[in-house]
Amino acid sequence: MQLRYAFRLYPEPGQRTALARAFGCARVVFNDAVRAREVARAADLPYPGAAELSKRLITQARHTVERCWLGEVSSVVLQQSLRDVEAAYRNFFASHKGERKGKRVGAPRFKSRKDTRQAIRFTANARWKITEAGRLSLPKIGDVRVKWSRVLPAVPSSVTVILDAAGRYFASFVIDTDDETDRARWDDPDPEAAIGIDLGLTHFAVLSDGTKIDSPRFLRRAEKKLKKAQRELSRKEKESKNREKARLKVARAHAGVADARKEFHHQLSTTLIRENQAVAVEDLAVSGLARTRLAKSVHDAGWAQFVNMLQYRAQRYGRTFVKIGRFEPTSQVCSTCGYRDGPKPLHVREWTCPACNTVHDRDHNAAINVKQAAGLAVSACGAPVGPGLVPAQREEAGSHGIPTRTCAA
């Protein structure tokens, strides 16, 4: 499978200028390609192909007065920008026809120079490399200092340079991992080790073995600092340098919250996958819950990100990962006798089964029901058996949808 490994970059002032130039050129080519497609659509003409756009918007444009500065950046960066346009239109048409899962995707829109996130991609034919001194050598940019926090497990196939909203630079490497090598890294757990997970807000996760993992509530803990920074930003004059400084302060505060949450998810998902042969979790309707009065707490928990980490780690290390249906009545059924007691308000944290008089902790009972609904009985040879087992799905190859492991803050 393919994974991303992200490392922090520290470009020098001249390299920052060169990167800003590359970001701008990639954005212009992207916008020119979108404009060419829109003009063709308005004139009821066939969409120009990738080869025609490359010739018109890159090769020929470099020899014009208006676009001569495109020659100051690597041509690979511009070609990859055209590939992004192609991918965006493919996703749009697939979504429009109902062939793409998930929410409906709109048509590509023009990028703005004021966007707080910028990115360019270098593939192997760009001849980028990691120098003996440990720097990232990029064409027409130079050797950029990298903070390496771990060793790359294989030779990367491409690297994406990202400037985030907080003004930080990252190098994101795409790595093709070997399944056998990955599975040999960890010792096999107990073949009968299987766990059901009930995600919540009072506790981030309650496991079927009774373990309760408190919710860190990173956003709630940082709210006072975030409110102060946002209030200072709102009082600054628009388009002023002080407003840009205040914007960076707000972005860095939010980035700190997001990084802490992601690290918590990484550590917890690694522990659960390492120690268990099979993991089951409920398929929550996060987008629906995010429209309720609990929206801020739901976003703060980050359930979707955590479940995605469980899924790709299970696939990578040869574990079984199961998602049960979101309409499974895990909080209504007695895990001891199977009696269904009906829905209960959220303030009810304990209840007694009328049939067998068993006293249940609401979340622990739900976690046991998640495990049972997934059929996580494990045979003596270590092979999961029972109904409903679904192996983790393979992640989409390419630069989109690849799991990311941030290795340097």
Molecular structure report:
The protein is α+β, with helices and mostly antiparallel strands. The chain has helices spanning 13-42, 50-59, 75-96, 179-185, 218-234, 241-275, 286-289, 295-301, 303-316, 362-373; strands at 2-10, 118-123, 129-130, 136-138, 142-147, 158-163, 169-176, 194-199, 203-207, 212-214, 278-282, 320-324, 350-352, 359-361, 377-378, 384-385, 404-406. The chain has ten helices and 17 strands. Helix 1 crosses helix 3 and helix 5 (218-234) packs antiparallel against helix 6 (241-275). The protein is elongated.
**Number of helical segments?**
10
Order of helices and strands: EHHHEEEEEEHEEEHHEHHHEEEHEEE
Q: What's the overall geometry?
A: elongated
Please identify the structural class as seen in this structure. Answer: alpha+beta
Distance between the termini: 25 Å
| Proportion of residues in β-strands | 15-25%
Alpha carbon gyration radius: 25 Å
Helix content: 25-40%
Main sheet characteristics: 8 strands, mixed
What ranges have pLDDT less than 50 throughout 5 or more consecutive residues? Answer: 377-400
| Global mean pLDDT | 89
Number of DSSP strand runs: 17
